[in-house]
Amino acid sequence: MSAPTVVGAQTSRTGSPARRRPGADWSPGRLARVVTMLFVAAIFVFPIVGFIAMAFRSHEGVRAGEDGFLGLGGMSWENVTYSWSQVNGFGPGGGLFTQWMLNSLVVAGGGALIAVVAALPAGYAMARLRFRARRAMLLVTLVTMVMPNTVLVIPLFLEVSAIGAVGELWPVVVIMGFFPFGVYLSYIHFMTTMPHELVEAARVDGLGEVSIFLRIATPISKQAAVLVTFFAFVANWTNFFLPLALLSSNQANKTVSIGLQELIGASPLFNPTVAAGLDVKLYMPQLALATFISMLPLLVVFLGAQKYLIRGETVGAVKG
Amino acid sequence: MTTDVREQRAALAPRRGTRGATRRKGPHARPGESRGAWLLMAPYVALLLVAGVIPIGYALVTSLRRVPTPVDPSSGFGGLDSFRTVVTDFRFLDTFVNIFAVLVVWLPIMLLGIVGLALLIHASPGRFGASMRFVYFIPGALAGIANFVLWVYLLNPSQSPIEGFWHALGITTIKQAVVGAGQLPLILAAMLFFQGVGSWIVVVNGGLNGISEDVLEAASLDGANAWQLAWHVKLPIIRPWIGYAALMNLAYGFQLFLEPQLLDQVASNAIPDQWTPTQLGYAFAFSNYNFPAAAAMSLILVVITLGIGLVIVFKSGLFSEESRG
């Protein structure tokens, strides 16, 4: 490609101290770039701002259409408390939404915990130990990692159904614990942070393989542990198809992702006949509030993991 | 922590010379090492069996069963009947045509968006570029159902912030917005783009940041302007990432379920109920209770996505990289 030019130019580089002109005039090219980027940013941000505002508005205000730009003028805390009473009043006796949030916490948190406990030793073993089938296991991990996980949902449903556990939370937790991306993250982590020599030295000192992992590898794996937990939690929290297949039959054991679907289905906006039989009224502000609340745990784990995400060497390695 | 490792590394430095030799001893390791490895792998292998291998095997067995009927309630060996049922189903081909229709619109826009925006960000050093990257990433945080509810808000003309746009098209209900001729692939493409482009921008941007400053400086000293720099220097370097993104998103297309399923729900069942292959498999299982056919449908999808997965793993260098460790 342009390699020869580049090499040629590199030699002449020392001759000229000129760098790219920082803060030069607004050339047409620069102007076009900045305007394009701001335009795209607006397309991305406005809907989200409007949507969050929707969670703070009232159905009457929305219908009257007088809440101003993106509905920002119609926001109030009163609306939120009313909407919450409607969202959480859903279901016999109410409180179903809270239950769904708790279920999501159990399956997403439990799944992430299993994922990290399984991923760290497996990633370490594949990165630093020699054994038959090591490459085969790595290949299986990579392929399952890049395949969309929904293709296995119906086979998983058949399996869980065969043992009579459809509608229970624990099979979902176990299945979510299978997180090949986490294994790959751990693998990359130990490849880059734990030198072979360290393992060899520990062996010379008489440590067994499992002890080496527990005493030497585990203490230097905080970065990987946080990343695996974070990615697993987010993937589990937003998983829709697996809970839909395994938990739909049990109203009290639904996760919030499929619970939101049920709220949409009970909205007078889309299903007047069903909605007519309900005590609560779920219009757009209520649906937006439920969605907004359902995203809060993700925000929390994001903030918690942020320091490690930004460091990001591991993630860079993955995609590269 | 890091310093510990570095100190230990430094302490071990003299032994470096022998490293290559010891490492290339081949796969036949000491028995202790092999046993330790499998012990450490055990939890993961158990999960792989429970959540991967056994379900696939069981689906295979199920797919070869016969569907019990009221007349003949036995479910003995049925051979490939269930695969025949699936492939000859009047919806089967349509679901793939539908996926194809979405991919044709979505993939080019997605790739153009990823590469274009990543290049624009890379051309904007400093705070502006970084904050734009963050802004583009935000919609990606709204995954799955949350993104869907957001789109219900956008698509429903009665309260949409782009109400004017819908009215200009003569659309007054969400049903009209969704069912018009050829509109569904466009809407799905928009939803998927909105949700997915941000995280890929971050990935490709990471690739661009890996280009050494010297190379870029050299090229610009050579007289390359920003366009030439992007086109002749940056683009060829990030080509592997673009291929990786294309294939990952292609595989993603085959799992489409949530969006068409729920759009149907908010559009008064105006969309065909089984619009994508995954929906068809779901219908076999949960509407017809034809588990053999549902299993067969899943296996067909497993084979397709496995094929794409293998191409990704071998072509992207994910697998070859590892030997460098």
Low-confidence segments of chain A? 1-20, 313-320
What's the CATH C level of chain B?
Mainly Alpha
Largest sheet properties of chain B: none
Radius of gyration of chain A: 26 Å
**What's the number of helices of chain B?**
16
User: What is the CA-based Rg of chain B, rounded?
Assistant: 26 Å
What portion of the residues of chain B fall into strands of 2 or more residues?
under 5%
| CATH architectural category of chain B | Orthogonal Bundle
Q: Write down the overall mean pLDDT of chain A.
A: 86
Distance between the termini of chain A: 21 Å
What's the number of structural domains of chain B?
1
Task: Give the gist of this structure.
The complex is a heterodimer of chains A (320) and B (325). Chain A is mostly helical and 320 residues long.
How would you describe this protein?
The complex is a heterodimer of chains A (320) and B (325). By secondary structure, chain A is mostly helical. Chain A has a domain at 102-258 and 297-319: Orthogonal Bundle (MetI-like fold), CATH 1.10.3720.10. Chain A has 17 helices and no strands. Chain A has helices at residues 3-13, 28-55, 59-64, 77-88, 96-128, 134-146, 153-162, 169-177, 180-193, 196-204, 209-217, 222-238, 241-247, 256-265, 272-276, 284-311, 313-319. In chain A, helix 5 packs across helix 9 (180-193), helix 6 packs across helix 9 and helix 7 packs parallel to helix 13. The two termini of chain A are 21 Å apart. Chain B is mostly helical. Chain B has one domain (96-324): Orthogonal Bundle (MetI-like fold). Chain B is built from 16 helices and no strands. Residues 1-27 of chain B have low confidence and may be disordered. Classes of the chains: A mainly alpha (320), B mainly alpha (325). At the A-B interface, helix 1, helix 2, helix 5, helix 6 and helix 7 of A face helix 1, helix 2, helix 3, helix 5 and helix 6 of B.
